[in-house]
Amino acid sequence: MEAYGPHNARSMSTAADGPDVSGLWDAHTHLQDEAFEGRVGEVLQRAAAAGVGCVVVAGARPSDWDRVAALAREHAMVRPAYGVHPLYVAELSPGWEADLTARLEADPRASVGEIGLDRAVAPRDDALQERVFRTQLAIARRLGRPATIHCRRAWDTLTAALEAAGPFPAGLVFHSYGGGADMVGRLSRLGGWFSFSGTLTWPAHRRGPMAARAAPADRLLVETDSPDLPPFVDGRPWPGPNEPANLPRVVAALAAVRGGAPAEWGRITAANAASCFGGMGAR
After folding, report:
1. By the 8 A CB rule, do 227 and 30 touch?
2. Considering all CA atoms of the chain, what is the largest pairwise distance in Å, rounded to the nearest integer?
3. Most buried of 48, 74, 201, 253 (most Cβ within 10 A)?
4. pLDDT digits (tens, 9 = 90+) for 146-172
5. How many domains, in total, are found in the chain?
6. Is the bond preceding 227 in cis, omega lying within 30 degrees of 0?
7. Are strands 236-237 and 192-196 parallel, antiparallel or unpaired?
8. Is 146 a member of any domain?
9. pLDDT(10) > 60
10. Which residue, among 84, 209, 91, 203, has the nearest Cα to 150 in the 3D structure?
11. Could you tell me if residue 184 is inside a domain?
12. How far is it, in rounded angstroms, from Cα 88 to Cα 27?
């Protein structure tokens, strides 16, 4: 979940044009967001029509974990993730760690996320962010689940914490990766996967394409971060809440950056996501 990206307009259109491939994985969304209230079914129908086969829905705080769990029960294409976003650490009540652990143990398909550090907001408690991040990372490690990580303006602190903890065999998914291309090697050695979003289509965005070129092909993922981070279409931001049906646009942007056909990159990123998220048990 990001604190930027226009998603206040409500107009929608049909599924995005894109690579002719099915089974795409949207590695990071927030379909529990109020922007989708009462219409998740139609949103997922459009996603399926666009070739999306699986959607990871990430919790941001304990108050939305029940909704994430319900979406995973109601829709076969949803994979749940439970975590505390750094923007919400001050809301935590005693016992949240036990609740998180219980939800993960109850569903072998569930991953940990969205967790991390954010130094782009104020006011904030940096020490509390770090404690909550480390606690969630330890839970993910103990249970052998991948962890999806949010980071803004804290890459040095975050990387130091990860390196101190050592390699993470279950995987660290750097969602809408915003670190530099020069950090890819270090993060890869820790078990990093690099997920790219609609920001690859933003005209002024230079850092993302450079990192997307640097990331190993077998560690690349794609996401929409719905309802945030909408892609640019015909030179303008997508006019409504971003949604998984826009994932082919992200795949096409990745193909333009890396070279090759969008369908090829659709297959590569889907296989990568299945490797990262898909080995965690069946419904």
Report:
1. yes
2. 50
3. 253
4. 999 999 999 999 999 999 989 999 999
5. 1
6. yes
7. unpaired
8. yes
9. no
10. 84
11. yes
12. 21
